[in-house]
Amino acid sequence: MEKKLIYSTELESLGAYDVVVIGGGPAGVCAAIAAARGGAKVALVEKTAMLGGMATSGLVGPFMTCYNREGEFPVVGGLFREIVERSMKVNGALCPDEIPAKSRYTSYIEKYHSNTTPIDSALLQIVLDDMVTENGVELFLYTQFVDCKTENSKIKQIVVATPGGLSMLEADYFIDCSSNADLAFKAGVPTWLGDEESGVPQAATLFFELTNVDDEKYLQRGGHKAYRTPEKGRYKVNDKHVMNVDPSNVRSMTVGHMEGRKLAIESFIDMKATMPGFENASLTQIASVLGIREGRHIKGKYMLTVEDVCNSTYFEDAVVTFGYGMDVHCRDAATRGGFRGESADWYTIPFRCLVPLNCDNLLVAGKTICAQSQAAGSFRVMPACMALGQAAGTAIAMAVQEHCNAGDVSVKELQTELVKNGAIILDNKNGIK
Ligand SMILES: Cc1cc2nc3c(=O)[nH]c(=O)nc-3n(C[C@H](O)[C@H](O)[C@H](O)COP(=O)(O)OP(=O)(O)OC[C@H]3O[C@@H](n4cnc5c(N)ncnc54)[C@H](O)[C@@H]3O)c2cc1C
Predict the structure, then answer these.
(1) Which of 9, 58, 144, 300 has a 20 to 30 Å separation from 262 between CA atoms?
(2) What is the mean pLDDT of the chain?
(3) Which residues does ligand 1 sit against, CB inside 6 Å?
């Protein structure tokens, strides 16, 4: 049996762009829209049939808190808020300002769980389709990034797998929102998997949805993680763990997803038998994509540390504010997951975390930016990923205008542009802006 196949082929170009964004999840959608609004010609490449990433194909929800730790004021605005408001108009979301902690919308969890946003995953797909289209982003669904060609520390072309076979896309700049740093890794950016010391990622979970739950009977009770969606009686469930799944390894993903399905069914049967309000629940869908909490992290110009999250370190180049705790799920059967340490009431993330080493025309956004694994346990949730996407997209549009390296844009101008567009960047040196 041959162990390796080497072959060369000619690829047709699907087009040339100022910016190509890989991955249409919360980070990628916001990156693409922000870059397009900044005047760039943008293509968005998504391997599944839908935008939204974990929020749609993964059935994950609610959007975690967008407020400070104490639940007093919002710390994420901008495109996140716009997506929520658009979703609310079609009954696809409830307003986070009105969602209390310790309610059926937060699975009765209190800590760090105020002001979450219950979402409908089906309606979100349509809202995001509309938003990227209205902003002139060219969308390629069913298109997976596979490889890239680099020259002098710049990505020149990328290879994508489409329903018609392999093709090529060209761009001056790229944003990696694949949530596993697929492009950054292939472009030669140093990366690591999971925990920076052990190399083990947090456990994965396959979400599922139940309908016909009796809201009034579902009262506080430990053990199961059922979150009410905007629709009466419909819940998203985030329950059992699949250990040690490597999102870059096809065998690991196959076995992990099948195990996730078995665990989802076990969980459903157990909930029906033991949970008040769930006796007549129906299993309507199991997510089509396994929920990977942690994959690769990139090495960038700055590594956000646990200390930064706990002490709210001041960063002159802050582009995102966040206030969720460091939510680190178990990595093996022997360890317990949960909130680690005490995060600051809010903290900021510097632009340098989005700027990878070794590649000059690339930014990275979403949960894979440069950070210690435990610190990423906080900003890996969706409101922060959207804010990171908006920051990356805004910065790359500026780089297009200035013909400079992606990491060399003026941070002051970037901050001004972000704030002008609704982003919240709090200033922990001079008091809140
Ligand atoms: C089990 C679980 C529970 C969670 N619970 C919550 C919660 O309650 N609230 C919350 O706010 N957050 C939660 N999170 C975190 C959150 O869902 C993710 O961290 C967040 O969605 C990350 O956003 P992203 O855009 O970086 O990545 P993703 O949402 O993963 O999106 C990445 C997108 O890129 C696409 N893609 C990947 N590789 C390629 C490629 N090579 N080519 C083309 N496309 C590609 C994917 O198909 C996907 O659409 C949870 C996560 C998990 C796994």
Answers:
(1) 144
(2) 96
(3) 22-28, 45-48, 53-54, 60, 62-64, 144-145, 177-180, 182, 205, 238, 291-293, 366-367, 380-382, 385
Report the candidate in 354, 432, 377 with the shortest Cα–Cα distance to residue 34. Answer: 354
pLDDT band (50, 70, 90) for residue 433: very low
Looking at residue 389, what is its pLDDT?
99
Cβ partners under 8 Å of residue 364, min gap 6:
175, 176, 177, 181, 184, 189, 298, 300, 354, 355, 356, 370, 392
Q: What is the pTM of this model?
A: 0.98
Ligand 1 atom closest to the Cα of residue 380 is 19
Output the six-digit token pair for 232. Answer: 């009466």
Predicted pLDDT of residue 337? 82
Q: Which domains does the chain have, with CATH numbers?
A: 13-97+119-191+297-420 (3.50.50.60), 208-286 (no CATH)
Name the pairing type of β-strands 282-286 and 326-328. unpaired
pLDDT at 334 (0 to 100)? 79
Distance, CA 1 to ligand 1 centroid (Å)? 37
Pocket probe mutation, ligand 1, options 179, 191, 228, max atoms within 8 Å of Cβ: 179
Residue 428 binned pLDDT confidence (cut-offs 50, 70, 90): confident
Cis-peptide into 62, omega within 30 deg? yes
| Strands 42-45, 13-22: pairing kind | parallel
How would residue 223 be classed by pLDDT, with cut points 50, 70 and 90? low
